[in-house]
Design goal:
Blueprint lengths: L1 H18 L2 E10 L10 E5 L5 E6 L5 E8 L3 E7 L6 E6 L4 E8 L17 E4 L2 E4 L12 H5 L5 E3 L5 E3 L2 E2 L2 E4 L11 H4 L7 E9 L6 H4 L5 E8 L6 E10 L5 E10 L3 E10 L8 H6 L21 E14 L9 E27 L2 E28 L3 E26 L4 E26 L9 E24 L7 E22 L2 H6 L7
Parallel strand pairs: 1-7, 13-15
Antiparallel strand pairs: 1-4, 2-3, 2-5, 5-6, 8-9, 9-14, 10-11, 11-12, 14-15, 16-17, 17-18, 18-19, 19-20, 20-21, 21-22, 22-23, 23-24, 24-25
Length: 523
């Protein structure tokens, strides 16, 4: 009992001692000339080798707090604020609590009132948070996603989505534009090398998917903009793979993309017989990245699929920006894409069954062979032109053409207990199908906060679809016991459908102001 008491006492002492091995830094950042607190100043704590430990933006009172810092360690404190000189100080954390007030001196030498230092990892530039890749020591082959995982407060999830301090970042741009014309962040964060990045900006934007009158009532969205170095705005990357195994199993895939300041182009494809299917070009790009952190392993053969399936998919995407700008609010861009995919399936099935009927046992053998194929083509074009948040014009067109056929033969034999044939049944099934779909939509919206009477939107949509299927079934049943039970039939099933729809709508957002003036009686 005494030994147990001593063990618990030692364990408690170790826990208390372990908790005491942390240091806390608290302080305020103020203007040295006026004594006014500086909100959103960037305070960074770095190791002796300049690698980042943590960072914070000062609150509305100019305050900051860092806890769980190593005791008896030497660190550097770096404080930056636009228009002020950078503050650097070496600290020896020989106390569990360190309190300080930092006075930043105005910078009168810099005419732009902006101070940039290469070793500053994170800083506020107006209302934009800027991450400096040069301040993070990483592997030479690291990509943007690897860099983001090292930034305190930033989380990169398994599906490639990004959150910052718990808030999701739905839009990731490269030089103010969707990378490769796609809205999927992974194409940029998992392919662009860290050494090609000048800086990463995070700022707030309004949600353009909402109606103008709803935008003021909701929180703004976070947008991340990856700004490339001037000499890295042109580049290319790609991957190719080929594999061959036992029983003539094989797979192959290719992905290649290139870009410059105004244009991007990508091609991709794959062919295999291991039941690995890729539906479109976007999935091909997503599954052929240079991701090092939590790699994507979804693009694998599906062992639950029946039969042997040969799948193929290839296509290309082209994006061109008619204007050269890094402002995400200004767009004049067209995107064209095409994808061809299809499959060939071969399936055999054999079943055996014993059954007892009217006191007699029977043995049933069923054999079937199925061959099917599909061929799919899809193409799309999108044009968008925006000017700030006020004007938005877009045209979107898509077309798809699909065809397929299915052939199967099924033979069933029934034997009695003496292995004598009782009956035979042969069923032959042949079918074809084809379909096509086209859609076109266009819209224009104008928003004017100062003049609600000038707010309106126009949308036009046209859709056309056609489908056709044709199936022939031949069945022959022969009884070796009673010929009167013999049955033969041929059937043909033919189905066709078509649909054409068109609609247009005009919305005028200034009607309430027109009727009631500035008196808002409806809220």
């Amino acid at each position: 009992m005494k030994n147990c008491f001593l063990f618990v006492l030692c364990l408690a002492f170790i826990c208390i001692t372990g908790n005491a091995q942390n240091s806390v830094i608290k302080g305020f950042v103020k203007d040295s000339a006026t004594g006014i607190v500086l909100e959103s100043a960037t305070v960074s704590i770095l190791k002796k080798d300049s690698s980042l430990i943590n960072y914070q933006l000062t609150d509305a009172y100019g305050g900051f707090t860092f806890d769980k810092l190593p005791l008896n360690a030497e660190v550097w404190m770096n404080v930056t604020y636009v228009g002020f000189k950078t503050y650097n100080k070496k600290l020896k954390l020989d106390s569990s609590n360190y309190n300080t007030t930092i006075l930043l001196a105005p910078s009168f030498d810099d005419t732009s009132n902006v101070t940039v230092m290469a070793h500053i990892p994170i800083r506020m530039n107006g209302d934009t948070l800027e991450i400096n890749p040069a301040a993070f020591k990483m592997d030479p082959n690291a990509v943007v996603e690897d860099l983001l995982t090292m930034v305190p407060g930033v989380t990169v999830w398994a599906d490639g989505s990004i959150t910052m301090n718990g808030r999701k970042i739905p839009s990731v741009l490269v030089d103010g534009k969707p990378f490769m014309g796609e809205n999927d962040a992974r194409l940029a964060t998992q392919n662009l090398p860290k050494d090609a990045i000048d800086k990463i900006q995070v700022y707030q934007e309004v949600d353009r998917s909402l109606k103008p009158e709803e935008r003021r009532k909701t929180d703004s969205l976070l947008t991340m903009n990856i700004k490339l170095k001037e000499n890295k705005k042109t580049g290319y990357f790609g991957k190719a793979g080929l594999g061959y195994g036992t029983t003539d199993r094989f797979e192959s895939d290719l992905s290649f993309q290139m870009y410059n300041k105004k244009t991007s182009f990508g091609v991709g494809g794959g062919y295999n017989n291991i039941n690995k299917n890729i539906n479109n070009l976007k999935e091909m790009f997503q599954n052929n990245t240079y991701r090092n952190y939590n790699p994507n392993l979804r693009n694998v053969g599906n062992f639950g699929t029946e039969g042997i399936n040969k799948n193929h998919s290839f296509g290309g995407a082209f994006t061109h920006n008619f204007i050269e700008t890094t402002n995400s609010r200004q767009n004049d861009r067209i995107t064209v894409n095409y994808t061809k995919s299809g499959s060939d399936r071969y399936l055999t099935n054999q079943t055996f069954q014993n059954r007892t009927t009217e006191g007699r046992s029977q043995f049933i053998e069923d054999n079937s062979v199925t061959n099917s194929s599909s061929d799919n083509h899809s193409a799309g074009v999108n044009y968008i032109k925006t000017n700030s948040y006020n004007d938005n014009f877009n045209i979107n067109g898509n077309a798809s053409f699909n065809s397929g056929n299915n052939n199967s033969v099924r033979k069933t034999e029934v034997l009695d207990s003496l292995d004598n044939r009782v009956s035979m049944n042969d069923v032959i099934n042949r079918g074809t199908n084809k379909s096509n779909n086209q859609s076109l939509s266009a819209g224009y919206s104008k928003y004017n906060y100062d003049n609600p009477l000038a707010q309106y939107n126009v949308n036009v949509n046209v859709n056309n679809s056609n489908s056709e299927s044709n199936r022939y079934v031949t069945s022959v049943f022969k009884s070796l016991v009673n010929s009167a039970d013999d049955t033969t039939y041929n059937r043909n099933y033919f189905n066709t459908s078509s649909n054409l729809s068109a609609n247009a709508n005009i919305g005028y957002n200034g009607l309430k102001r027109l009727l009631f003036g500035r008196f808002n009686f409806l809220e």
